[in-house]
């Protein structure tokens, strides 16, 4: 199941990256690059940090073709994208949860401690979006909008907790996926977010 969700998710993430590049008036190469980084950047950073070589996408060229094609196709479909906003939000939420679980699994297979496993899951889940926003010169949305990175943290902790409780692996994945997706969609629906830290020295000056 996660494999199919992963393919759908990287396609959706690539398209979101292409749209971000379009807002910055980038050329076709820029669009393709941002699409690729958005879709596969989180897994790449995770593999590098964990020493998991070769990096996953280098063994599956289909992922490269898929993300770049999705990015370039977005240029042709841009005028219709605003009609698909809700679909994109759902696919993005699915991708966040799937990426997190996949990242946790890879770190577990490499026998890392649970703390590292959680960080690997979060990195996989959110770092593609962070790279996209850095490349597009804007504050990372995953750290400033409705619950996003915190959903990744919740999923990682829930997944590991149920693993410790002896919950069967496939059932664990389904429960973690369902809860994570539900929380993310509820956060979008009701605008749930963490408290924001706004530091403005002038507020405290006499």
Rough outline? globular
- What is the number of domains? 1
Rg, alpha carbons: 17 Å
Spatial gap, N to C terminus: 59 Å
Strand content: under 5%
Arithmetic mean pLDDT: 91
What count of helical segments does DSSP give? 7
Q: What is the string of SSEs from the N terminus onward?
A: HHHHHHH
Stretches with pLDDT under 50, minimum 5 residues: none
Beta strand count: 0
**How many strands, what sense, and barrel or not for the largest sheet?**
none
Q: What is the structural class?
A: mainly alpha
Proportion of residues in helical segments: over 70%
Provide keyphrases for this structure.
single chain, globular, 0% strand, 206 residues
What does it look like?
With 206 residues, the protein is mainly α. The protein has one domain. Helix content is 71%, strand content 0%. It has 7 helices and no strands. It has helices at residues 2-23, 28-50, 61-77, 85-109, 114-135, 149-164, 169-190. α2 (28-50) runs antiparallel to α5, α4 (85-109) crosses α6 (149-164) and α6 packs antiparallel against α7 (169-190). The longest helix has 25 residues, at 85-109. The protein is globular. The model has no long low-confidence stretch (mean pLDDT 91).
Outline the fold blueprint.
Layout: H1 2-23, H2 28-50, H3 61-77, H4 85-109, H5 114-135, H6 149-164, H7 169-190
Short account of what is shown:
This protein has helices spanning 2-23, 28-50, 61-77, 85-109, 114-135, 149-164, 169-190. By secondary structure, it is mainly alpha-helical.
């Amino acid at each position: 199941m996660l494999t199919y969700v992963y393919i759908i998710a990287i396609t959706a993430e690539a398209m979101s990256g292409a749209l971000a590049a379009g807002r910055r008036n980038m050329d076709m190469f820029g669009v393709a690059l941002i699409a690729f980084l958005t879709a596969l950047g989180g897994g790449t950073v995770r593999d590098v940090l964990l020493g998991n070589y070769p990096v996953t996408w280098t063994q599956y060229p289909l992922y490269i073709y898929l993300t770049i094609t999705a990015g370039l196709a977005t240029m042709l479909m841009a005028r219709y994208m605003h009609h698909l906003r809700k679909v994109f939000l759902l696919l993005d939420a699915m991708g966040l949860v799937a990426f997190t679980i996949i990242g946790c699994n890879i770190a577990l297979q490499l026998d890392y401690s649970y703390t590292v496993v959680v960080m690997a899951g979060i990195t996989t889940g959110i770092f593609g979006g962070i790279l996209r926003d850095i490349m597009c010169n804007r504050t990372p949305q995953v750290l400033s909008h409705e619950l996003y990175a915190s959903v990744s943290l919740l999923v990682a902790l829930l997944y590991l907790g149920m693993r410790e409780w002896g919950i069967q692996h496939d059932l664990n994945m389904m429960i973690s996926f369902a809860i994570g997706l539900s929380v993310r969609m509820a956060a979008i629906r009701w605008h749930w977010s963490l408290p924001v830290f706004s530091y403005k020295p002038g507020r405290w000056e006499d």
